[in-house]
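Thread: Newbie trying to understand structure tokens

Hi all, I'm a second-year student working on a class project, and my supervisor (Dr. K.) asked me to get a predicted structure for one chain before our next meeting. I've only ever worked with sequences, so writing a 3D structure as a token string is new to me. If someone could post the tokens and maybe explain what I'm looking at, I'd be very grateful. Here's the chain:
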Amino acid sequence: MNTPALAGGILAHFVGKRSASVRERGVIIASGFMAGGALGGVIGAACRLIPGYSESWIKTPFFGNDAVSQIVSTAGFIGFCLYLWFGSVKGGEEAAKQ
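---
Reply by user tm_fold:
Sure, no problem. This is what the structure looks like when written as tokens:
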């Protein structure tokens, strides 16, 4: 549960060392991730209010396979981290040029 917070702190440290404009862009992207996660939670809770809702509505093809599920989740997490890093650095470099 705390791994995303740890990864975010590490990324913030390295992004912040580059420049202030890079850090600001990273905060904006990270805020979007947090808002998206919150909306996902609200949508998930709202689905449970629908009569006849079952977990089969949200099952993915790899849901029953733990190894594949863990690999896909890890790849997605690494993808989000890379997007945060490169989006922050790119946005900060563009701001520094202006």
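A couple of things are worth pointing out once you decode it. The radius of gyration is 17 Å. The mean pLDDT is 80. Feel free to ask follow-ups in this thread.
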